[in-house]
Write a structure and sequence with these properties.
There is one protein chain. The chain folds into three domains: 2-44; 70-167, Up-down Bundle (Receptor-associated Protein), CATH 1.20.81.30; 172-414, no CATH class. The protein is flat, with a radius of gyration of 33 Å. A hairpin with a 5-residue loop joins β1 (2-8) and β2. The chain has a three-stranded antiparallel beta sheet with strand order 2-1-3, with helices on one face. α11 packs across α12 (270-293) and α16 (343-354) packs antiparallel against α17. The model has no long low-confidence stretch (mean pLDDT 82). It is mainly alpha-helical. The protein has helices at residues 24-33, 47-61, 78-90, 95-105, 109-123, 128-133, 141-153, 156-213, 219-233, 235-254, 256-268, 270-293, 298-308, 312-326, 332-335, 343-354, 358-413; strands at residues 2-8, 14-20, 37-43.
Length: 414
């Protein structure tokens, strides 16, 4: 390798030059034999190595670094972390020692670094609640509030077990929805691919045959051939237009007005609307129930739940419930005034408020609603699959019939 060195010669002058050696120790020995006192020795990197390192720094600045980063830890590991912490604390292991054991056990480098930093904060004297509050991307306000309540009441293992149950339930419903969408998405992709093959390869050949035969084409056949010609001859324009429309739709859906429109429209769809209401009601009951059972006041529980709910109609409902409770009134009065909460839920909440068992009643409600929602999602999936297959058959059948009809006309003429 080539090194650049700075050294002091016998006259006390600082000199610098390059030297070809195998390693740094050989460079020190070579300089000493020449009567020079080494000051610094730096390896010269090749242009390729320098370029690679420059690209690496560029990727790091763009957020593509592979170095462990606690803020890149994924929430899917949260149930495991919470459950293991609950077990360790239940056995009497101190918080810092529990975090240390988990740090050694975790395989994800981001989570290992995150747990290590939590351990460092706890050893320095911070509470576990204040430590997790520093990472809101992973631990939401509900998590940190319940941890704080557990530390205050001395029931941290129990609180962590409830949090683990909440995380598992949320992940199970999310995975259920994702699994339900995989098959319809696959069928839609296949249908789109078939249509593209027809437009680019099949329809042009039939177009040439029809032109050669000079046969009168039906309206559906003319429309298909026209679409094929436009897409093939103006593909760039069609592609740019398609991307522009998709981008505009996505931006509008993400806007406040778009979100409200989509939310209201989805609630009006016969089966989908009731499922959306049921899943949101289940989440609200689950969160308020767990928070109240964790010794968090009802006002704070409603406020934390409101921050965790995304649907604007349920956010408005929770804001009204918070205002009602703030002035000493009950939650069920507001629930009874809206159509998005079934009367059975309102009545059970009323019973819980009268018997001072809001936490237990709402947790039982959440268990019942979650079980029913999972069944409804499975049923909806089993209904959607044949519907999509029928739609695919209708599209491809329409194309096939449009191509075959001119052949019948030709045979009848001949």
């Amino acid at each position: 390798m080539i090194v650049t060195y700075q050294a002091i010669d016998r006259s006390g002058t600082l000199v610098h030059d390059n030297l070809v050696v195998e390693d740094a120790s050989q460079a020190y020995g070579e300089l000493s034999r020449n009567g020079l006192i080494p000051v610094s020795i730096t390896e010269q990197k090749s242009r390729a190595v320098a370029n690679i390192q420059g690209l690496h720094k560029l990727f790091e600045s763009l957020g593509f670094s592979r170095a462990p980063d606690p803020r890149r830890a994924q929430r899917k590991e949260l149930p495991f972390f919470t459950e293991q912490m609950a077990i360790l604390l239940e056995t009497g292991t101190p918080v810092a020692a529990s975090l240390s054991a988990l740090e050694r056990q975790l395989t994800c480098p981001h989570w290992r670094l995150l747990v290590g930093q939590l351990k460092k904060r706890v050893i320095e004297g911070a509470s576990l609640a204040s430590a997790v509050e520093a990472y809101p991307e992973i631990f939401d306000p509900i998590f940190s509030s319940m941890i704080s309540a557990g530390e205050t009441s001395g029931k941290l293992p129990t609180i962590l077990s409830r949090l683990a149950q909440l995380s598992r339930q949320s992940d199970r419903l999310k995975h259920k929805v994702i699994s339900a969408m995989i098959y319809p998405t696959l069928l839609t992709t296949i249908a789109f691919s078939v249509i593209m093959v027809l437009i680019f390869f099949v329809l042009p050949r039939f177009s040439a045959i029809f032109i050669e035969m000079k046969v009168e084409l039906p309206g559906s056949t003319k429309a298909l051939l026209t679409i094929s010609d436009i897409v093939r001859h103006h593909f760039i324009v069609v592609l740019i237009s398609f991307v522009s429309v998709i981008t505009a739709v996505v931006l509008w859906v993400r806007s406040r007005r778009g979100k409200r429109f989509i939310a209201l429209t989805a609630l009006k769809i016969p089966v989908i609307g009731s499922l959306i209401c049921s899943t949101n009601n289940a989440r609200i009951c689950r969160l308020i129930g767990l928070l109240v059972e964790s010794s968090i006041t009802l006002l704070d529980a409603i406020e934390l739940t409101r921050a965790s709910v995304k649907h604007f109609m349920f956010v408005d409902l929770l804001e009204k419930m918070h205002g009602n409770v703030l002035v000493g009134r009950s939650m069920h009065e507001i629930m009874a005034q809206t159509k998005i909460v079934p009367a059975s839920i309102t009545q059970m909440v009323h019973t819980g408020e009268e018997n001072a068992q809001v936490g237990r009643i709402m947790t039982l409600l959440a268990d019942h609603l979650d079980d029913r929602n999972e069944t409804r999602i499975s049923t909806l999936t089993s209904v959607m699959e044949p519907l999509i297959l029928i739609l695919m058959g209708m599209i491809i059948g329409t194309v096939a019939i449009s191509l075959v009809l001119p052949m019948f006309d030709l045979s009848r003429i001949s």
